[in-house]
């Protein structure tokens, strides 16, 4: 089955307003930047986005954020985006913050068909006790807070119940992919991408290098094609368009 689409625009054309979307990447490493831009250009709004973070100002999911296309964000780290902070504190954006390992496991569980699981992470904090601000009032105060979560004792230790995450769509970026949707991620781009790919009911993958079925060694496949419904081959220019979140330099003598 050939799952390739001629362009990112055609691959995201049926994403409706208000859809839930899981997005791969960590920081801006391994993000599906071409698909994100296509969602922006399509004018899709009121999105419920699940991603480790929300990009940076002017790039990645930050583009959707500054255009007010995101209504709700489920993340674990948002510290590099000033516009994110402004929208959250002014009541324009609802935000559910989750411990990073819990977010990863919720995506993995959702993709594996597991509705919920128990974890010790967050026990004794607002993660479990509730009351964490999800949305502020523009005039001050808190409009929406997190609910109390179920806890249970196992062998003398307390655990909190967390729900698996399944989204309408998932957007990921792979280094190599074939027409059947089998994907390979290079080095640190194999971050949240494999987890996100399994969590979407419809998963769209942009790939830097498209190969024919059978060219990828089955033992090197990170995401099997059964989880991927659409594949978008990138142009050389799109594949090379990668950015560095925080550039650091030092002189040859080193710091003194």
Automatic annotation (TrEMBL):
A GO molecular function assigned to this protein is:
CoA-transferase activity
Q: Which UniProt keywords apply?
A: Transferase
Please indicate if the UniProt record lists Transferase as a keyword: yes
Q: Which Pfam families match?
A: CoA_trans
Asked if the record carries the keyword Transferase, the reply is yes
- Provide the protein name: Unannotated protein
* Species this protein is from: freshwater metagenome
């Amino acid at each position: 089955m050939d799952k390739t689409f001629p362009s990112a625009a055609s691959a995201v054309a049926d994403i409706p307003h208000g859809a839930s979307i899981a997005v791969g990447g960590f920081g801006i490493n391994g993000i599906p930047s071409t698909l994100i831009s296509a969602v922006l250009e399509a004018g899709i709004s009121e999105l419920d986005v699940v991603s480790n973070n929300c990009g940076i100002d002017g790039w990645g999911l930050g583009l959707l954020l500054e255009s007010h296309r995101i209504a709700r964000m489920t993340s674990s780290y948002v510290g590099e985006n000033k516009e994110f902070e402004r929208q959250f504190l002014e009541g324009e954006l609802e935000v559910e913050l989750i411990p990073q390992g819990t977010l990863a496991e919720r995506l993995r569980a959702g993709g594996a068909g597991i509705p919920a699981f128990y974890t010790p992470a967050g026990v004794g904090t607002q993660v479990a006790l509730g009351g964490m601000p999800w949305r502020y009032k523009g005039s001050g105060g808190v409009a929406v807070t997190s609910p109390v979560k179920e806890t249970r004792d196992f062998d003398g230790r307390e655990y909190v119940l967390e729900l698996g995450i399944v989204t309408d769509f998932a957007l990921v970026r792979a280094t190599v992919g074939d027409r059947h949707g089998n994907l390979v991620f290079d080095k640190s781009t194999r971050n949240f991408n494999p987890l996100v790919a399994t969590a979407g009911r419809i998963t769209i993958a942009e790939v830097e290098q498209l190969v024919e079925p059978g060219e990828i060694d089955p033992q090197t496949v990170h995401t099997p094609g059964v989880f991927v419904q659409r594949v978008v081959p990138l142009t050389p220019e799109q594949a090379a368009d990668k950015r560095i979140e925080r550039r650091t330099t030092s002189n040859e003598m080193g710091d003194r």
